[in-house]
Amino acid sequence: MATAGAGTTPGSKGRALISVSDKTGLAELVQGLSALGYDIISTGGTATTVQAMGIPCTKVEDVTGFPEMLDDAAYQCVCDFKEPTCVIVKHTNPCGVASVADLREAYRLAVRADPISAFGGIVAFNRPVDAELAKEIREFRSPTDNETRMFYEIVIAPSYTPEGLEVLKGKSKNLRIVEAKPRAPSGLSLRQVGAGWLWQEADNLAPEAIEFTVVSTTQPTAQQLEDLKFAWRCVKHVKSNAITIAKDDRLLGMGSGQPNRVNSVRIALEKAGDAVKGSVLASDAFFPFSRGDSVEIACKAGVSAIVHPGGSMRDQEAIDVCNEYGVVLLTTGVRHFRH
């Protein structure tokens, strides 16, 4: 791919964005563009090759602020957490999230949330990767059989120690190791819609900026409230219809992308398994039905607290069901609704 656009370097005719897998003729192309006065913007191996030619080249992440990959969901998600956190993403959905002071344990807990989905995914950290953490990434066995080493396409972290980098390089010749500094969610979101583009404000609402309103008779404990905020932070990054189940700063299960909310609830509960007892649940949008549906199914499974935006014509039904089961129910007044 090679495209030209407006440039920012004084005297430049514009920018040429180049990203190719077959580098035949690349030298002639970039030399010609450079001679014509274009700034060269490139990605990954292409950027490395161009720089080796001695031609000035800017990496695309230095222009956009994001790593050069479509699936930057892991990076966006992990940047949302202040505590030491590991996020594992598969097909743009976080399937494992854990915040623990010991990043090795955070990594293990993130994998255990859904080891099948985590295999072949993207793992991201918001703290530097040292040799001990790199060894854990390299050697950790899948909880499904305790034999198979976990495989990843990409590892993302703000930095790596020299020893940690060497350890990771030995995991797989195809592993892409990306260094990306933490970046607070902000700015605008751009999505292609048919022949045009949708330009809107990015969803940068953190739990700290939201008023959680208790609407149930049962009041949340301090721990439940912290768990609910963690689940709400996670559900922001899951594609709707989105459900997350969490406890003790750890994602236990998530349901994503289902055309109806009750199926997302069922999937999340299945992934959480026996750990669902005493956990909390977050829904990215309101529950259209509750009795015999999403809310009651969650209550019967052992969920102890639920948070959702509210705003349904049947909000009272959700309150009544939670009161019958002694489950805490909170509303936020805002939704995420990621697509």
List the main descriptive attributes of the protein structure presented here.
alpha/beta; six-stranded mixed beta sheet; five-stranded mixed beta sheet; 339 residues; 12 helices; globular; 24% strand
Kindly summarize this structure in a few lines.
This protein is α/β, with parallel strands linked by helices and 339 residues long.
Radius of gyration: 23 Å
Question: Could you give the order of the helices and strands?
Answer: EEHEHEHHEEHHEHEHEEEEHEEHEHEHE
Instruction: Say what oligomer this is.
Output: single chain
The end-to-end distance, rounded to whole angstroms, is 26 Å
The total beta strand count reads: 17
Q: Looking at the structure, what is the overall shape?
A: globular
Alpha plus pi helix count:
12
Roughly what percent helix?
25-40%
Structural class: alpha/beta
Adjacency order of strands in the biggest sheet: 12-17-16-15-13-14
Low-confidence stretches: 1-7
* Mean pLDDT over the residues: 88
Major beta-sheet overview: 6 strands, mixed
Tell me the strand percentage band.
15-25%
